């Protein structure tokens, strides 16, 4: 890999062949005229290339490095043991023409890899290009080859259709490793096995410089059987080269191509795929981070894990500064040439990538000989143990349940201390559960702090689900993925009691599908004289939903309470549960999302003390018929206006492009937090491109931090955040999405 810590972009290396390797099949006038051409005739092909391009005979010089970072024409079959420098990065116009068993005339382009592969009977041409695609297509046209057609297999491979040739755990590894520009032959790999057990291999990409004649699915299987582990590396567009013009979309294309290439080699879902992001200048960091976030997301959607390779004090330094955000990969691959084969690095905080998630490239561009075979390599040490953990996304359906109380630390002596985690085994859900919907309430906090709810056994995210101050009681609906039948509750400061009520779960088995709706206001007791008195119930007939509805998604807001109390929302015609959905004090306005089962077309609202007004806005519903299915995701931070100077002013709207979700997304599940408000105000989250509804999702007072779960329809890949008064910062974390 080419740009390393404290190093400038490597100067272009000269070709490793001697002058005798040049084969000018036909001559031209090689003058100072830049337009001078030379004619090449080989295997029945006749074409012209610029006169200053070397033409190399691979049969006469089988150790020639076939590299696409320099202009050249290579004639013949690349040798299995090429003499390539380890650190080549980049791609320009070059051709490899070799005999093959091709029987048809074709021309196919992989634009993600900037390469055209053309065939005629008996010959295959691999034509790479950089900035001058037209030059390459002109050469191919002169050779009598058709215009290239786009490759159709580059798109995202369905994980359920992908067949893994090797276990995904072969991308775990520990101890010494190396990466070479071109995958070594099986003979060399065998000779080197006693000294190394991990090898970096280059899958493809628009800036992959070396060809890979040895790298096939059979080669991967053979090396895996010999005990090798792998670091599959993709070298796509680079920030350092000014190529990141549309980072998020470029990353999606690169990730899809990487998945296709990995699948062809036998690496299936659960494998770690690394992106090589070479060292860049400080001003290029935002584009690199946007690219890395979309790369991670696209891999995760297909069930793969992500790794990012980069220099310690550019790429990795930026990843550390944004640790826990969407750009955070599953594995950090740090290039720091300090000749120390250790994954404990000053640039990495001890708590970051701490669970077997590190690779350290500690030396580079060195020659080593083992078993009589010499390679130019970069040297690595690995501590990677996360492969195999990625889940293959499958459609999930919702099953209403309860509400059932699963946890109350006031009764079981489980009050959560500062910087402590409580792990809750889930009862009342099947083994096929993929996510649970919990109404979580914190009470009796002794300090200002926050609570994070996340899948047990996974890395704790930076996202918080509830924020509180001493003595406050705060509820919030949580949709949390489940991986091992448990969920964890983490408290940052002081002590706090936690109550968790199960309202439903998502499963890969039978269940209900979701239909986004509205937001539509169904109830506002301020307008209909229906203010709820103490110990009273209001029954709301549901409008705008079909007769077969099994549950509704409501954003419920209480306002004007005259006493401290709570509100319970439950199915009409059933016994009132002990669970509360909202807790409040006199004069407070509090919203919370509610997913409530429906049995007879109505839902009930019960108020315990004092009087209170209630507002209910419909955001969607579940039915047993056709609709949208759910995919748990993250939690992944999509927005933090504190970091991007996007603080929302009075009457202002922030449009958030959604990353990490497919184009078919119909709604997203976001935990939205408002913080640093300067005035009494509210926040509305709604589909971009639609009229702003009157519904509010969060209400706040100056200085308050307020979270709320939001299920918001998506119409054009964006959602909007509207703030009414003052200024406010907004944080949005993705917990999942619905697709049609």
From TrEMBL:
Tell me one Pfam family matched here: Rv2525c_GlyHyd-like
Instruction: Indicate the transmembrane segments per the record.
Output: none
Which Gene3D superfamilies is this protein grouped with? Glycosidases
What is the organism field in this record? Amycolatopsis alkalitolerans
**Cross-referenced InterPro entries, in alphabetical order?**
GH (IPR017853), Rv2525c-like_Glyco_Hydro-like (IPR015020)
Q: Which domain of life is it from?
A: Bacteria
Under the heading SUPFAM superfamilies, the entry gives: (Trans)glycosidases
* Entry keywords, A to Z: Signal
Which segment of the chain is annotated as a signal peptide? 1-32
The residues covered by the Rv2525c-like glycoside hydrolase-like domain are 191-381
Query: This protein is called what?
Result: DUF1906 domain-containing protein
């Amino acid at each position: 890999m080419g740009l390393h810590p404290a190093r400038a972009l490597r100067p272009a290396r000269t070709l490793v062949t001697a002058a005798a390797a040049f084969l000018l099949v036909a001559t031209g006038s090689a003058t100072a005229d830049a337009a001078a051409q030379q004619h090449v005739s080989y295997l029945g092909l006749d074409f012209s290339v610029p006169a200053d391009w070397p033409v190399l005979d691979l049969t006469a010089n089988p150790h020639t490095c076939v590299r696409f970072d320099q202009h050249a024409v290579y004639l013949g079959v690349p040798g299995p043991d090429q003499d390539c420098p380890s650190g080549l990065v980049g791609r320009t116009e070059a051709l490899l023409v070799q005999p093959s068993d091709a029987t048809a005339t074709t021309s196919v382009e992989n634009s993600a890899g900037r390469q055209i592969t053309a065939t005629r009977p008996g010959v295959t041409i691999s034509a790479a290009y950089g900035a001058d695609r037209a030059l390459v297509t002109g050469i191919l046209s002169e050779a009598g080859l058709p215009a290239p057609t786009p490759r159709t297999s580059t798109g995202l491979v369905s994980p359920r259709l992908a067949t893994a040739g090797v276990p995904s755990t072969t991308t775990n590894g520990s101890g010494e490793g190396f990466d070479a520009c071109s995958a070594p032959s099986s003979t060399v790999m065998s000779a080197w096995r006693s000294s190394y057990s991990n090898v970096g291999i280059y899958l493809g990409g628009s800036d992959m410089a070396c060809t890979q004649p040895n790298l096939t699915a059979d080669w991967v299987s053979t090396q895996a059987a010999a005990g090798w582990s792998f670091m599959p590396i993709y070298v796509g567009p680079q920030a350092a080269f000014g190529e990141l013009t549309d980072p998020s979309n470029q990353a999606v294309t690169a990730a899809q191509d990487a998945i296709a290439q990995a699948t062809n080699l036998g690496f299936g879902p659960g494998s770690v795929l690394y992106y090589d992001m070479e060292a860049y200048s400080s001003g290029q960091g935002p584009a690199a981070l946007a690219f890395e976030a979309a790369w991670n997301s696209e891999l995760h959607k297909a069930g793969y894990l992500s790794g990012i390779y980069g220099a310690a004090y550019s790429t990795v330094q930026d990843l550390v500064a944004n640790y826990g955000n969407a750009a955070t990969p599953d594995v950090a691959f740090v290039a720091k040439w300090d000749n120390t084969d250790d994954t404990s690095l000053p640039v990495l905080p001890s708590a970051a990538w701490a669970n077997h998630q590190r690779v350290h490239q500690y030396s580079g561009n060195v020659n080593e000989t083992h078993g009589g075979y010499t390679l130019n390599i970069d040297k690595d040490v690995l501590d990677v143990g996360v492969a195999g953990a990625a889940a293959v996304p499958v459609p999930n359906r919702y099953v209403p349940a309860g509400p059932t109380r699963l946890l109350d630390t006031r009764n079981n002596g489980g009050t959560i201390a500062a910087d402590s985690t409580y792990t809750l085994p889930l009862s009342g859900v099947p083994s096929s559960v993929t996510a649970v919907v919990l109404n979580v309430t914190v009470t009796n906090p002794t300090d200002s702090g926050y609570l994070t709810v996340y899948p047990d056994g996974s890395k704790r995210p930076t996202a918080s689900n509830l924020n509180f101050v001493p003595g406050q009681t705060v509820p919030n609906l949580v949709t949390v993925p489940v991986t091992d039948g448990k969920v964890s509750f983490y408290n940052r400061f002081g002590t706090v009691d936690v109550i968790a009520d199960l309202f439903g779960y998502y499963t890969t088995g039978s269940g209900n599908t979701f239909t986004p709706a509205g937001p539509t206001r169904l109830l506002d007791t301020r307008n209909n004289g229906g203010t709820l008195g103490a110990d009273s119930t209001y029954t709301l007939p549901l409008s705008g939903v079909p007769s077969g509805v099994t549950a509704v998604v409501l954003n419920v807001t209480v306002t004007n309470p005259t006493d401290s109390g709570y509100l319970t929302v439950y199915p009409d015609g059933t016994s009132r549960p002990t669970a509360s959905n909202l807790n409040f004090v006199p004069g407070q306005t509090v919203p919370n999302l509610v997913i409530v089962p429906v049995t007879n077309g109505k839902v009930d609202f019960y108020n315990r003390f004092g009087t209170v007004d209630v507002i209910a806005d419909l955001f969607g519903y579940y039915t047993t018929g056709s609709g949208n299915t759910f995919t748990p995701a993250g939690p992944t931070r999509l927005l933090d206006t504190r970091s991007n100077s996007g603080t929302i002013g009075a009457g202002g709207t922030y449009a958030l492009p959604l990353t990490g979700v497919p184009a078919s997304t119909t709604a997203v599940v976001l935990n939205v937090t408002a913080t640093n408000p300067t005035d009494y105000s509210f926040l509305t989250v709604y589909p971009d491109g639609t009229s702003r509804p009157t519904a509010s999702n969060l209400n706040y007072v100056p200085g308050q931090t307020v979270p709320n779960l939001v299920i918001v329809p998506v119409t054009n890949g964006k959602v909007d955040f509207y703030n009414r008064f003052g200024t406010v910062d907004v944080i949005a974390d993705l917990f999942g999405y619905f697709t049609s």
